[in-house]
Amino acid sequence: MNNHFGDYQNAIYLAGLGGVLPKYPVDFATLKARAEAAMPPAILHYVQGGCGDEYTQDRNALAFHDWGMVPRMLVDTSQRDLSIELFGSKLPSPLFMSPIGVTGLCTQDGHGDLAAARASAQTGVPLTVSTLTNDPLEDIIAATGDTPAYFQLYTPKNHELAASLVRRAENAGYKAIVVTLDTWVTGWRPRDLNNANFPQLRGHVLQNYFTDPVFRELLGADPASDLRAAVLLWVSLFGKVLTWNDLDWLRSLTRLPIVLKGICHPDDARRAVDAGIDAIYCSNHGGRQANGGIAAIDLLPAVVDAAGATPVLFDSGVRSGSDVVKALALGATAVGIGRPYAYGLALGGAEAAAHVLRSILAEADLMMAVNGYPTIADVRSAGASRR
Ligand SMILES: Cc1cc2nc3c(=O)[nH]c(=O)nc-3n(C[C@H](O)[C@H](O)[C@H](O)COP(=O)(O)O)c2cc1C
Questions:
Q1: Which residue owns the Cα nearest ligand 1 atom 20?
Q2: Residue 2 in domain
Q3: Residue 24 C-alpha to ligand 1 middle, in angstroms?
Q4: Nearest-angstrom CA–CA distance, 188 and 174
Q5: Quick check: is 1 in a domain?
Q6: What is the mean pLDDT of residues 163-177?
Q7: Is 231 touching ligand 1 by the criterion CB < 6 Å?
Q8: Exposure of 246 by Cβ count < 10 A (0-12 exposed, 13-18 middle, 19+ buried)?
Q9: Does the annotation flag 317 for ligand binding?
Q10: Burial of 76 (C-beta count, 10 Å sphere; 0-12/13-18/19+)
Q11: What is the pLDDT of residues 99-141, one digit of tens each?
Q12: 369 has pLDDT over 60
């Protein structure tokens, strides 16, 4: 008999018989409320806030309710398989952790990136490490154990610096480079603006730059000895405006699979596939960049259709196991968890982040068990329809 992710609920109920309640909530609403009470306001706003009036980020989550799946009965789902193949690795589940640039600040000790890495090691859920971290990318991957990790690139304007970051990620053992396309400039984020708070300008989450030989050479000094100059250099280097013409150059930097993050239009997906990109990442950055109004999940089916055989990663608004199953039903190859694991880190470091991932996986697995889908292929062929 296989172990199943859904068994996590048995452990919780059994602990309850001994009088022990779960230390952290299993649902997103309670998790969010607990995080709101626990996190320092500036960090909470940075994690929770989004663009404009935050309509898009709210729609991202709410739109999952517009999609539904029809249960099938008299199917033996006593054995279930949620594993997938991605970038040459077999993964126990289709979940991954999306890149979150202030992960480092989500734990009180300032080493949230390492805590996220430990949660990844404990759950087998790959971590996508942001360019913006409080610990160097080499130290973070060292804490991921046997679980593969991916490196997310905010492409610097300076080509040598971009090449250096990618080379470091490749040498350190990352399994893919995720190039984020929608963030050469920061979107209009009223919560952060009202607090005049942008963590990078305060010298936070810049360790990948500060430890980089090209960055240090450009600075001509130790970043620790002149933080202001180092931050100003970072400002001047952040955010190359990428166009289709840059894909060949990006390809020349690495042998690793290249994933394009932020693709929401089927024509862009088609063009990326034609250009030989290894995977599409359909995401609207959790509504943090543009308040465009359409939920990412509603854009996923057309992107999947256009991508053909190319894997499609998805995130934005995933809050539960049933959201995960719906995204799979709509064709996602792998599903990214964002804010929920950041809240977990804030409540209890690696242990709580791992709990958040396990709870989401348990719900996904049990939904498959109850609805008659023993495998992801069954989920996909069942599909999802609009209510
Ligand atoms: C606080 C925060 C920081 C983020 N930083 C990055 C980042 O450094 N790189 C990136 O590609 N995406 C970043 N994202 C976007 C996430 O990768 C992901 O697309 C988003 O969180 C999905 O939305 P959701 O968390 O509401 O589900 C960030 C998101 C949040 C909430």
A1: 286
A2: no
A3: 22
A4: 32
A5: no
A6: 98
A7: no
A8: middle
A9: yes
A10: exposed
A11: 999 999 999 999 999 999 999 999 999 999 999 999 999 999 9
A12: yes
Cα 102 to ligand 1 centroid, rounded to whole Å:
9
**224 C-alpha vs ligand 1 centroid, how far in Å?**
27
Burial class (CB in 10 A: 0-12, 13-18, 19+), 375: middle
Distances (CA, A) of 51 to 232, 290, 347: 24, 6, 25
Kindly give the number of the ligand 1 atom that is closest to the alpha carbon of 319. 27
Does 142 map to a domain? yes
Query: The CATH number of the domain where 379 resides is what?
Result: 3.20.20.70
Instruction: Give me the residues paired with residue 35 across strands.
Output: none
Q: Whose CA is nearest to atom 10 of ligand 1?
A: 99
Task: Supply 338's token pair.
Answer: 């964002």
373 is in an annotated binding site: no
**Structural domain count of the chain:** 1
Paired tokens of 158: 């300076």
Q: 112 by DSSP, 3-state: which?
A: helix
Is 50 close to ligand 1, i.e. is its CB under 6 Å away? no
Report if pTM > 0.70: yes
Residue 9 assigned ligand-binding role: no
Query: Is 154 annotated for ligand binding?
Result: yes
**pLDDT higher than threshold 90 for residue 387:** no
Please give the distance, rounded to the nearest whole angstrom, from the Cα atom of residue 100 to the centre of ligand 1: 5
pLDDT digits (tens, 9 = 90+) for 195-222: 999 999 999 999 999 999 999 999 999 9
Residue 99 sits in which domain range?
A: 7-386
- Are 251 and 180 within 8 A, CB to CB? no
For ligand 1, whether the C-beta of 100 sits within 6 Å is yes
Tell me, what's the pLDDT at 2?
A: 67
Active-site residue numbers?
285
Asked if residue 1 has pLDDT above 60, the reply is: no
